[in-house]
């Protein structure tokens, strides 16, 4: 087996993460230790785009949320400038990256010529500003394609049929329905597009000066790829838009080489001309790599702009809920995932309303309120939610006879509001109860052997404590909450190694037996409670989850968006 020594002495591996609100970079050395990192925040560092949380919300079209494509280009240039004093670019032997999943970019006809002949004396911004058939990139927060989702599902024989074929039923944020909407509502834009990229393959395309392939893992987040064959599904392509396959190009495995770095970066920033660009992939798949998640009993919870729960499995068993993607670092395996749109921004909304915009006060309220919150259950949807498919709104209930934990006929009553401390606990517990309820329904391990928490809120030990109580297992954290850019840097090293060996090698061979000496090791943050009180609490949470899922089902039947 190939060892870690196979990474050349003194070499650097650069990983990017193009997320909703920022662009990050993480640099690993050949010992897989972080030697540099940098970030560009879109709202504060590129204020001329006037984004909020990195996005625009269309006031005339409910649920239409997008970002300016060119902002990502300018952010990329700024990030490279910020990295320049920190690292020697000539030592970078491979680059890879992570992109927010589902977001799409539309290159207009003739743009390949521009991309392949970039002038190193000019900025990327000045050369690419006219390269797109639309300046707006639909992103994962968009929920304006319900009509297109139904049309695609109907054309292939129903939601379950589409899920079995592509790994997910039609979701509004998925790229296929977004493409269909553009084809239907702006046919001239569709006609003028020569290549459609995901955010991940878009950024890779800039680095190689050529249209980079969409990788198979991120490609599974489009409702367009056959999850078993890992090729575009002709059935779904035809149901989405005419001539689509030509605009998408070919798929590639996540560990493949997208190309050598473009001469533009060699001349402008002194990258080595042999530096490899490894296929970029989605943010959640990169987090899976960065968390070294390779045991089926483990779960990861990412607490970011969106909250996600994911794990790995040997076989694909798609259903009407959740998603199945190819595992980005294990060619024969899969990753399973649940995604919630209402993550950190919704927690911040409660903090701002109830805790004087202070995380310290928010955390003190969590400390002051008992687990289970006296039977108070909250459903908080600042944005249209994905799981469950509910519209914007807030729903609060008190479960009346909750002290009788064995009761299967708990009675709840709806209330207008909770006091501020209860509201704080209700948002945290509500999100976690929903995660556990849906994870169990999706067939994820129950209880997990352990949970690895990542994302911005994973640095909040009060929230980690609630995760341990509700899931009944230990919670680990990694050194850095930005696991996506770390995973991208690790995947850059892995792709370099696979290329060097001439075939796929397991990613674990780079750190096996040595994980704690790298920047990848996970540390125990909260142990699982083992005493009688802890087990009794877990049992009560299990009862409360059943009640919550029952209320949720009724809400979906009454006001659900799908």
From TrEMBL:
InterPro entries: ATPase_NBD (IPR043129), Carb_kinase_FGGY (IPR000577), D-XK_euk (IPR042024), FGGY_C (IPR018485), FGGY_N (IPR018484). Coiled coil: none annotated. It is an enzyme of class 2 (transferase). Residues 299-496 form the Carbohydrate kinase FGGY C-terminal domain. Keywords: ATP-binding, Carbohydrate metabolism, Kinase, Nucleotide-binding, Transferase, Xylose metabolism. It catalyses: D-xylulose + ATP = D-xylulose 5-phosphate + ADP + H(+). The keyword Magnesium does not apply. Pfam families: FGGY_C, FGGY_N. Its EC number is 2.7.1.17. GO terms for molecular function: ATP binding; D-xylulokinase activity. Belongs to the FGGY kinase family. CDD domains: ASKHA_NBD_FGGY_SpXK-like. One of its GO terms (biological process) is xylulose metabolic process. SUPFAM superfamilies: Actin-like ATPase domain (SSF53067). This is Xylulose kinase. Residues 139-288 form the Carbohydrate kinase FGGY N-terminal domain. It comes from the Eukaryota. The keyword Secreted does not apply. Mediates 1-deoxy-D-xylulose (DX) phosphorylation in the cytoplasm prior to the translocation of 1-deoxy-D-xylulose 5-phosphate into plastids. Can also phosphorylate D-xylulose (Xyl). Uses preferentially ATP as cosubstrate.
